[in-house]
């Protein structure tokens, strides 16, 4: 494994809407520590163009860019990381992928978390923690699963799903390495300002554990 150390504290996931560069740029100004390009509809060339713009932007802030789902896109771009689902584990040689980039895998159960770690994942995305309007087919975890996963694996954990100023404090008693957000930051009126506030809050929460 040869990746640079990565900081998952405040992990922005893109929303497929307009003015992405501007909004992600503001989140980076506010201190976002990583960005995931997540796009479910666009054609490959469109994604490549959009992700390349974000990659340049992220490089200015020395923040890793993760690509959701599209291994080929991540490779072509030279992205720092890839984020995949459970069903992707069998379709890729994660170990060889993990030699080239940071590999994140989503997990909703302890079994899935252990499976992802054993397959070579560098970190886990765990959720959805709370009701979210950003993912139609989201399935929800019991928050107690966070503790079980924490005990079962040694790779870092990023919590995702419906995390905003109201729900973030509910994660106070849980140990995690980072928080991933779409709407709380990218749909905010002042993405830079809210990123600054969330980052401080998340840092404080991480210190307790
Ligand atoms: N995976 C699980 S929930 C979710 C994803 C991509 C959506 C998170 O979006 P939001 O707006 O932060 O709830
Ligand atoms: Mg996926």
UniProtKB/TrEMBL annotation:
The answer to whether keyword tRNA-binding applies is no
Pfam families (UniProt xref):
TMP-TENI
Cofactor section: Mg(2+)
| Binding of 2-[(2R,5Z)-2-carboxy-4-methylthiazol-5(2H)-ylidene]ethyl phosphate, residues | 132-134, 162, 182-183
Q: What is its EC number?
A: 2.5.1.3
GO cellular component terms, A-Z: cytoplasm
Q: Where is the Thiamine phosphate synthase/TenI domain?
A: 10-185
Residues at which 4-amino-2-methyl-5-(diphosphooxymethyl)pyrimidine binds:
36-40, 68, 106, 135
Return the InterPro entries for the record: Aldolase_TIM, ThiamineP_synth_sf, ThiamineP_synth_TenI, TMP_synthase
Its BP terms in the Gene Ontology are: thiamine biosynthetic process; thiamine diphosphate biosynthetic process
Instruction: Please provide the record's keywords in A-Z order.
Output: Magnesium, Metal-binding, Thiamine biosynthesis, Transferase
The record's catalysed reaction(s) read: 2-(2-carboxy-4-methylthiazol-5-yl)ethyl phosphate + 4-amino-2-methyl-5-(diphosphooxymethyl)pyrimidine + 2 H(+) = thiamine phosphate + CO2 + diphosphate; 2-[(2R,5Z)-2-carboxy-4-methylthiazol-5(2H)-ylidene]ethyl phosphate + 4-amino-2-methyl-5-(diphosphooxymethyl)pyrimidine + 2 H(+) = thiamine phosphate + CO2 + diphosphate; 4-methyl-5-(2-phosphooxyethyl)-thiazole + 4-amino-2-methyl-5-(diphosphooxymethyl)pyrimidine + H(+) = thiamine phosphate + diphosphate
Q: Which GO terms describe its molecular function?
A: magnesium ion binding; thiamine-phosphate diphosphorylase activity
Which protein are we looking at? Thiamine-phosphate synthase
Q: Which organism is it from?
A: Paenibacillus albiflavus
């Amino acid at each position: 494994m040869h990746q640079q150390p990565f900081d998952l504290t405040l992990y922005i996931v893109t929303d497929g809407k307009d003015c992405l560069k501007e909004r992600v740029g503001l989140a980076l100004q506010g201190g976002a520590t990583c960005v995931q390009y997540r796009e479910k509809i666009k054609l490959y060339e469109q994604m490549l163009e959009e992700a390349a713009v974000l990659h340049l932007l992220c490089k200015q802030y020395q923040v890793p860019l993760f690509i959701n789902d599209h291994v080929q896109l991540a490779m072509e771009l030279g992205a720092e990381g890839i984020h995949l689902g459970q069903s992707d584990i069998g379709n890729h040689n994660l170990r060889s992928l993990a030699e080239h980039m940071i590999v994140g895998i989503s997990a909703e159960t302890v079994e899935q978390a252990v499976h992802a770690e054993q397959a070579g994942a560098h970190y886990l995305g765990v959720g959805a923690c709370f009701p979210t309007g950003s993912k139609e087919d989201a399935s929800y975890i019991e928050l107690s699963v966070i503790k079980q996963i924490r005990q079962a694996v040694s790779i870092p954990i990023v919590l995702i799903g419906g995390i905003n100023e109201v729900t973030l404090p509910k994660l106070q008693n849980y140990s995690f390495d980072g928080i991933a957000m779409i709407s709380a930051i990218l749909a905010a009126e002042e993405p830079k300002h809210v990123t600054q506030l969330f980052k401080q809050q998340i840092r404080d929460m991480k210190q307790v554990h």
